[in-house]
């Protein structure tokens, strides 16, 4: 995991829980990490708008989903990588909105 904007984000095939034992997943991991960074920036920019936070998180996550589909042969479309990436995005949202990443915040929604 690497530090990015105050949170830990996945950066390797192992971090993303890709099929690293069967494939060389470096490119897939790099693309997923890049997409996650774009999603975080998208969310950050959207905070100044009027969009509800759960919808904003869902829209931001769609950036990562397109890369997940592209690298599905590496396991990127599986539940584990989705959870890892979504948790990083939610942690960023908690940090921006509440100043910390602790606790459950139902007001963030379940839109992802």
What attributes characterize this protein structure?
single chain, 112 residues, mainly alpha, two-stranded antiparallel sheet, 4 helices, 2 strands
Can you tell me about this structure?
By secondary structure, the chain is mostly helical. It has one domain (2-108). The protein has four helices and two strands. The chain has helices spanning 13-16, 26-46, 53-70, 79-98; strands at residues 2-4, 7-9. A two-stranded antiparallel sheet has the order 1-2. The longest helix is centred in the first third of the chain and has 21 residues, at 26-46. The model has no long low-confidence stretch (mean pLDDT 94).
**Domain tally:** 1
Count of helical stretches: 4
Unreliable parts: none
Q: What's the helix-strand series?
A: EEHHHH
Provide the gyration radius in Å: 14 Å
Overall geometric form: globular
- Tell me the strand percentage band: 5-15%
Give the N-to-C terminal Cα separation: 22 Å
Residue share in helix: 55-70%
Q: Please provide the count of β strands.
A: 2
Let me know the average pLDDT. 94
Largest sheet: 2 strands, antiparallel
Query: Which structural class do the helices and strands define?
Result: mainly alpha
Main β-sheet, spatial strand arrangement? 1-2
Write the layout of secondary structure elements.
Layout: E1 2-4, E2 7-9, H1 13-16, H2 26-46, H3 53-70, H4 79-98
Antiparallel strand pairs: 1-2
Helix pairs in contact: 2-3, 2-4, 3-4
Summarize the structure.
The chain is mostly helical. It is built from four helices and two strands.
